[in-house]
Amino acid sequence: MSIWKKQHEVGSSKLAATHEWPSQINTFQIFTLQTLNFSCHLTPNSLIPFHFDPRSTKSSCMASFRSRSLPFASSRLMQSTNPVHSGAVEGVGGNILRRFRSIITTEERVQKLEKEGTHILQEEIANIRQAFTAAKDKFLKIPDALKEMPKLDPKGIYVNKNLRLDNIQVYGFDYDYTLAHYSAHLQCLIYDMAKEYLVNELRYPCSCLKFKYDNSFPIRGLYYDKLKGCLMKLDFFGSIEPGGCYFGRRKLTRSEIDNLYGTRHIGRDQARGLVGLMDFFCFSEACLIADIVQHFVDAKLEFDPSYVYQDVNQAIQHVHRSGLVHRGILSDPQKYLVKNGQLLRFLRMLREKGKKLFLLTNSPFYFVDGGMRFMLQDSLGDQDSWRELFDVVIAKANKPQFYTSEHPFRCYDVEKDTLAFTKVDTFLPNKIYYQGCLKAFLKITKWNGPEVMYFGDHLFSDLRGPSKSGWRTAAIVHELENEIRIQNEDGYRFEQMEAMAKLHIIQELLGKLHSAVGKGDECEEYTSLLQDLNNERQKARQTMKDMFNRSFGATFLTDTGQESAFSYDIHQYADVYTSKPENFLFYCPEAWLHVPYDIKIMPHHVKVSSSLFSR
């Protein structure tokens, strides 16, 4: 407006002599002309008297602002309001009436575009609503569609990276939860021993002794936040699962998660700062952490979540390192160990094919020896020893440091329970070795990385080191067999596949709806459809979760059907994965194991194509 004021002062005498300013032109009209890019071309000499309706100009200006919410018309609108393209200004002395008519034409165009945009928007919402209705009708056809989907093998080998078994000459094994199969009673034993240590040694309240292990609460692959005290499940990309974040035994709402973390997406880097509970022994640890936190909350006691983890982890480690759990298992092997004749068949088959075998475990030898004798006693002959199945037996290996340290091997005297002082530069038959490191192991055996495959249950302690060192890796995930059996059940295949199909289709429709409707353009039809889609999506998510674990859902999947963070780690560090080592009995030792061509991320997941419901 200062430009207009200056121009008016300079040319006031000339204007007074030739024209009279119309009273209708006011400050708002001048500002409006500036907004529409006419002020830079208008001078006092070019102005002529005319009747100017401020309401018309204002509506034209506001229409130009409203037009920004119509993406499909933005380019046409910009052309119509630009004086260069519209011909509204043709230099000094141009006809202002023609300019004014251009403004009116622009307003008419904007109104027309707004009407067209509203009509197109309503039509798009109606189409999405129609697609949603059609999809709900097709959900009824799911039982027929499921007949075309093959069932998966609970004892199958699932491949992340192509693997030729004929290239594998050396097979290595962990012991606990790899060669040794344990019953569900073991978690209760570890839990009870750890809580007693907390009370007796770390002076936790005696009321903690009343805690009972809840096998329905934890799953493998959870994360504990030592700073905030939350036990959570993450998805493949490091986001907190909305229905899988607990403070103690109380599930946090989505808003509580947002308030606590600012965002659900923790991300890979920040997630590494959390404590991962990855092996089978972590079930009791996760449950005890949650119970301790809940106890402190209920008792209104102040506590530091990092101390809770430190103390519980110390208790769990003490149970193992002190030998308490080992002696407890061997005192009643019938209760805690599962006999396994198939394991012996597998190991013997490898020996007959000329393969080399080694055992590499953190457990002490007496515990491994007692367990192997019990598990194989019905299959081994009286004169046979399980030790004859292995070329090398290494106990108390101290993984994962074994893969990075330079600690020497020590020969263990079974009879005297002592370690020899002589240097180990070769592995002798029927001898037991303690400690050591990967560097020395490769130097002694001359076994090259790619020809070695190592089996283990702990992704970090067992498999990450070998994977980075060039060994091929096989993850043993015992719960995999049960989850696949659930997937194969008719009840699951109907309920779960219906939920997954609904979720995939609803997600697609929600994407289309959000793309069609911009911010500020919401209408009643949009709000109604959005609510219906979200309600249907929430039902599908809850159905998917309840089929596995009421607290955290499936081990490999989130409630949305995406892969979990545990799946990410399996994908990273395991070339193949299966529920038991002896599942390899069902495959030829010269087999080529290939990644399925149609996998999403995890090859054992059932793929539900929306095309099944479009017929």
UniProtKB/TrEMBL annotation:
Lineage: Eukaryota, Viridiplantae, Streptophyta, Embryophyta, Tracheophyta
Keyword Transferase found: no
Cross-referenced InterPro entries: HAD-like_sf, HAD-SF_hydro_IG_5-nucl, HAD_sf
Entry keywords, A to Z: Coiled coil, Hydrolase, Magnesium, Metal-binding
GO molecular function: 5'-nucleotidase activity; metal ion binding
Gene3D superfamilies: HAD superfamily/HAD-like (3.40.50.1000)
Protein name listed in UniProt: 5'-nucleotidase
Coiled-coil ranges per UniProt: 523-550
Stated family: Belongs to the 5'(3')-deoxyribonucleotidase family.
Organism from which the protein derives: Salvia splendens (Scarlet sage)
